[in-house]
Amino acid sequence: MGFSIALIVFSLLLMLLVLMHKGKGGGLSDMFGGGMQSSVGGSSVAERNLDRITVVVGLLWAACIVVLGILMKVTN
To answer: How many whole angstroms separate alpha carbon 34 and alpha carbon 48?
Structure first.
């Protein structure tokens, strides 16, 4: 039951994080400072941190799916 709730929370959080990424025309991350480009080049610190957080949440989401699959197999 706990992993099912965690999967729902991680799914919603992952959707929110993906929507916050800046696309070709900008994104919701512009509201949080992600739209400011540095003159040196590359993406801003906010955008890089958003990338890192998205990857971590994605890995946790995948781990929840694996654990739920194992638990379903063991209980049946």
So the answer is: 9
Write the single-letter amino acid at 11.
S
CA separation for the pair 23, 34 (Å, rounded): 11
58: nearest Cα among 23, 17, 3: 17
What is the Cα–Cα distance from 29 to 43, expressed in whole angstroms? 12
CA–CA gap between residue 10 and residue 36 (Å, rounded): 28
Cβ-contact 67, 3 below 8 angstroms = yes
Please state the φ and ψ torsions of residue 41, each to the nearest 5 degrees.
Answer: 115, 170
> Residue 50 is encoded by which pair of tokens?
């958003």
Put simply, whether the predicted model's pTM sits higher than 0.90 gets the answer no
pLDDT, block means (10 residues), the chain with 76 residues: 89 93 63 55 78 94 94 90
